[in-house]
Design a protein that fits this description.
The protein has 3 helices and no strands. It is an all-alpha fold. The protein has one domain. Helix 1 crosses helix 2.
């Protein structure tokens, strides 16, 4: 069973991965189509402030973003 903290941590780590995919230095062999998709997804990705709001509204689903 996933805990609220694990769920929030997964969201934050996923954002880190998407940002890394955009970097030619960190991920040099990533196809441009993947970079474009990562860029598109990040445009709509929740900010830490939004995750904090989700935590306050639904603490049983989202942990506090640290």
């Amino acid at each position: 069973m996933t805990t609220p903290d694990e769920r929030t941590r997964a969201i934050l780590h996923t954002k880190d991965l998407l940002v890394e995919l955009l970097s030619a230095e960190q991920a040099p062999n990533v196809p441009e189509a993947i970079r474009d998709e990562a860029r598109r997804l990040l445009r709509h990705y929740p900010s830490p402030a939004e995750l904090g709001l989700a935590h306050r509204a639904l603490p049983m689903f989202f942990g506090e973003p640290l």
